[in-house]
Amino acid sequence: MKDSNTVGGSGALSGRVKIPGDKSISHRSVMLGSIAEGATSVSNFLESGDCLSTIGCFKAMGVKIRRSGKKVKITGAGLPGLKAPRRVLNAGNSGTTTRLMLGILAGQPFTAVITGDRSLCSRPMRRVSAPLREMGAKITGRDDGNFAPLTVTGGDLLPIKFRSKVASAQVKSCLLLAGLYAKGTTTVSEPQKSRDHTERMLLKFGVKLSVKGNKVSVKGGQVLKGTRIEVPGDISSAAFILVAAGIVPGSKVTLLNVGINPTRTGVLEVLSGMGAKIKLFNLRGGKAEPSADITVTYSPLKGVAVGGPVIPRLIDEIPALAAAAAVAKGRTVFRGIGELRVKESDRIKTICSELAKFGVKTEAFPDSMIIYGGARLKAAASAESHGDHRIAMMAAVLGQAVPGITKIKHTACVDTSFPGFFGLLKSLRKK
Ligand code: S3P
After folding, report:
1. Does residue 274 share a domain with residue 297?
2. Which atom, in ligand 1's list, is nearest to the CA of 198?
3. Are residues 82 and 61 in the same domain?
4. Which atom of ligand 1 has the smallest separation from the CA of 170?
5. DSSP 401
6. Is residue 170 lining ligand 1, measured as CB closer than 6 Å?
7. Quick one: 188 and 247 in the same domain?
């Protein structure tokens, strides 16, 4: 597989593009479909490394899953129907696969081992292993169950009332999934509301939930009924194209069928606040997962302050916003972003190191970052992904807006979330 890419050239970006399916929703469709009763069919499934890891893990636990391109059919095994895997479950690069699946494994009467790549094995798992242990699961791994490879032996679970210190959809979803296996009602609360795809999808599978502000409760033992899931385009992937068109003078690009779940749309608000011209139209979908077409037209941007409850609503879009901040006039300050330190890379560190290669001045703090935008920028001769898909895409997008050719190393990781990204970006400039 090609592991480096070049970007650059001149001229505006234009076109209408379809963004690949949402990663978070694709993962959940396979997980909930696997523990449901009856058949689930999924359309516009994201054919990315991460989501294929989820399919691989559930197949290894005996679930019949057939995929033909973006269409997936799952024959549900029912809540207790998974089989003990004969081999180690490989979650690849995917934190979502690992953390959500741990919730399901906690309810199974067997032992399973889950591991992944180097980056995954260095990401903190105590945030889920500690509450799952409280519920009754046995979990072992390095640093007292904090790092994969993790061994989990599930079984009878007790419900829990858990107050998460971090606003994390992965923690919330893991515990709600474990809660399906517990005797009684499990409640999870979080300091700020994180993405709510699990809650929306559980409702779609016929599960009753109570949602009050940032608190969600689920009663164990409810049967999930197979259903149809249509996955909208991923706003986290769309963000890179939005920013590319937003920072290359003269550009106008339309992105089709992008998910606009309000727990994910912080990026649109911040870009608009920076002066980007963004228009939403053809709004569709009701409660399940709303989507829209989005047009972005180039206009000069200015720096802004980003912090508070919007952070979980754009946590994955900070690399894309960092590229916008690099060309915006003035400084952009991100506060309360400590979670970036434990993503696929330490993103505060990798954003700053890669922006520096373009001539951007930045300052990094434990949980904040300042980007001084608007300076004269140059192409990066040797940008580096650090194995992080979103850092590679940040460099690619910024590389489109500066004179000269930018070379980015180790770009194969982009496939974990946005297969075809480089081709799509290039096609916007081909006239
Ligand atoms: C995700 C939740 C977020 C996000 C990740 C996907 C999910 O992580 O960063 O890319 O699908 O639940 P946290 O929940 O850890 O913030």
Report:
1. yes
2. 12
3. yes
4. 14
5. H
6. yes
7. no
Separation CA 302–CA 232 (nearest Å): 30
Instruction: Print burial letters for 203-242: b (CB count within 10 Å at least 16), e (below 16).
Output: ebbebebeeeebebbbbbebebebbebbbbbbbbbbbbbb
**Distance of CA 173 from the midpoint of ligand 1 (Å):** 10
Does any ligand 1 atom lie closer than 6 A to the CB of residue 93?
A: no
Residue 201: CA atoms inside 13 Å, Cβ hemisphere, count?
26
Is 105 found in the same domain as 73?
Answer: yes
Identify which of 51, 315, 340, 391 to mutate to test ligand 1's pocket (most ligand atoms within 8 A of the CB): 315
Q: Is the CB of 234 under 6 A from ligand 1?
A: no
Contact 83, 105 (CB under 8 A): no
**What total of structural domains would you count in the chain?**
2
Pair (318, 423) in one structural domain = yes
Q: Which domain holds residue 194?
A: 23-230
Atom of ligand 1 nearest to the CA of 167: 16
- Same structural domain, 63 and 156: yes
Is the separation of the CB atoms in 396 and 365 below 8 Å? no
pLDDT in tens, the chain (431 residues): 689 999 998 899 999 999 999 999 999 999 999 999 999 999 999 999 999 999 999 999 999 999 999 999 999 999 999 999 999 999 999 999 999 999 999 999 999 999 999 999 999 999 999 999 999 999 999 999 999 999 999 999 999 999 999 999 999 999 999 999 999 999 999 999 999 999 999 999 999 999 999 999 999 999 999 999 999 999 999 999 999 999 999 999 999 999 999 999 999 999 999 999 999 999 998 668 999 999 999 999 999 999 999 999 999 999 999 999 999 999 999 999 999 999 999 999 999 999 999 999 999 999 999 999 999 999 999 999 999 999 999 999 999 999 999 999 999 999 999 999 999 999 999 65
Domain boundary among 208, 230, 252: 230
Looking up residue 30, the CATH number of its domain turns out to be 3.65.10.10
Q: 258 and 175 in one domain?
A: no
Q: Last residue of some domain: 188, 207, 230?
A: 230
Cα angle, residue 51 at apex, residues 47 and 55 outer, rounded to 5°: 105
- Are 77 and 175 found together in one domain? yes
At 321, list the tokens. Answer: 């916003």
